[in-house]
Amino acid sequence: MYFSILSLVLPGCTPFPTDVIFVLDSSASQTKEQFDVQLDFVIKFVENVNISREEFQIAVITYSTEARVDINFYQSTDKDTLRRLIEDIRFRPGATFTNKGLKVAMNVARKSERRKGMVTLTYAFVLTDGMSNKRTETRVAAKELRNADVHVVAIGIGKEVSHQELVDIASPGDTFSPSYVYSVRDFNALDTLLKHLVQITCDDCTATSDRSDIVFLLDESYEMSETEFQISVDAMTAIVKSSNHIGEPDGPMFGLVRLGNTLKTVIELSGSQMQNSLQVQFQTLNRRQNEVCDKDEPCSGGNITSAITQIYKNFYNTIERQNSRKFLIILSSGKFENQEIIKEEMVAINNVSDVKLFVIGPGLDVNMDGLLSLAEEANHVYAILDTNDLSKLDVMQSEFSYNVCKKKT
Question: Which of 126, 165, 287, 290 could crosslink 23 through cysteines, CB 3.0-4.6 Å?
């Protein structure tokens, strides 16, 4: 599988009774293989928690043209039984009525006599590509579910995820997590969230250390308009603004490299960075007019992969941090002339690198094929239409921004 989940059984920790509802996409926009990945995730979750009346209980809903309860809470008696029930769930392709799945989740989440006298938490894990047939109804149903004190986690699946609908479905970020939107291709990002379900009542909570080295590569070649350049600046600023623990030993570090006729490092990775000063640095960026390529020079397409290689080779070595996660965020219009060559070169680059790459396409006139030639996964490409569209980046935020669980006093 593509993921691992840390054990949730921590010494000295007794979780609240927690109801977890999995809302799985069984629509025709998913393949049978993608549906099986969803079932695998549920099984892996069950394997790493204690199933009992006092701890975790599980329900599973599938939706397509209709929604149905495949497993209800009263059936969550033990792990072996639960696993068999999950394995028996069948793929039933149809329309993508995510709203119906959310409404059924609301009914399942209603308080019952199962845990009379207990304080319980309720989570809904909604797995979807965000391509619902009734988006307005989906937003309304998600809001009603959140208003019923259900923590809603949206998990993107498939190759063409709608980041905006994931954001619309999920609970807003809070003091624990900046985002409750995740990618099915990186379940490691869920570790902190899953551990939180146990640690919320811990007297002795082991602190986690999640370090992220994040480098922006800003394309300022002639293909990028002034509007696209400004949207890129605002996107970088928004990411920094939403990041926690900047300047702390285990917090994120940011870097910036600009690509025109030359490759220029503007901001080095540093542990002494401050959030406000980083935002000012980004917002005061001016386009280097003398570095903008001539229209007869395909400099952006010709240099983008060499720029990525150079960053991978040298930039992350500026400050070595053990166990840090490494990210490269490319901001470009994607108007490359040699997309197939770029795609081939990126395959070779990714085979020898542990850096996770995201691509942001700013504005209405981006070339999606060009952007996709850079990304290993299609759901790592973000089309940001304007500065009012920046909330989509919350999906990315969950990958590299984590809170540390502090020991209670």
Answer: 126
